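re: ur question from earlier - yeah i can do the single chain one, its not a big deal. heres the input i used so u can compare w yours
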Amino acid sequence: MTQIESEKNLSTIQNLPKHLGIIMDGNGRWAMLRGKRRIFGHETGVLKARELVETCVRLRIEALTLYAFSAENWSRPAKEVNGLMKLFEKTIEKYTGLLIDNRVRFKQVGKRTLLPKILQRKLEQMEAITSQNEGLKLTLAIGYGAQQDIIGAVKHIIDDINQGKIEKDAIDESLFSNYLSFNHLPKLDLVIRTSGETRLSNFMLWEAAYSEIHFTETLWPNFEEQEFIEILENYSKSERRYGSIKKEVELKKA
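and the output i got, formated as C-alpha cells:
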C-alpha cells in the first residue's frame, strides 16, 4: 500500500476509538521461526510499535496503551528479561526526539521499583520531558498486571476509609476507577491482541469491561497498517450499548 492510499483509507474511518490498548504478542515466536534469538523478535517489535504510534498520531487518536512487559513476565529466563530491560533503555534513548516532535505525552504504568535503576531514571526523564505535550497519550505498561493494580487500589481505598478521607458508601465504579493506574486516560474502547492467543493475560481487566476486543493470528512484527485499518473500520461499525438495547441508547441520544 502506498502512502497516498494509506492516508485515503485512514481519512475515511469514522468513529475512531479514543483509547486503544494493544497486547503486542508473538515477538519471540516470530524470531524463532526465522532461526533467530527471541530478543531479535523484540527488537523488531519495537520498530512495529513505532509505526503504530506514528499512525495513531496521524489519526489523532487520544490515547494508546502498549502492553510491553507483564507482572508475570518476570518469571521468564533471566537472560531474556535482562535483554528486554536493555532494549527498553535503548528505545527510550532512541525515540525521545520522535515523541517530542509529535507532541506525544509519555507515561509508564506498572511496578517501577522492580525495574533496573537506570531504566527507572530514563522513564522518569521521558515522562518529565513530554509532560506538557498535548497530543497522543502514550502509555507503556512495563511490569504491569491488572489483578495487582486492582489489589493495590483496594488497599489504597481501605487506607483512605480508615483515615476518614472517603466513606464506604461513596465507593462506586467511578470512584474505584480513580484509584487505578489508568485514571488519567479516557475509557478503553478497543483492545487488540496479536499472535492468535485469545485471552487478555492480566491486561486492563477492569478497564476492558465494555471494550471491543479483537484477536488476530498475526504475530506482532508482521502486524501491518492495512490490518490495523481494517480493525478500526470494523470497530467503527460496532454499537457500544453498555448493557442497554439499541432503542434505549437512541432515546438517550435524542
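The mean pLDDT is 92. not sure if urs matches, ping me
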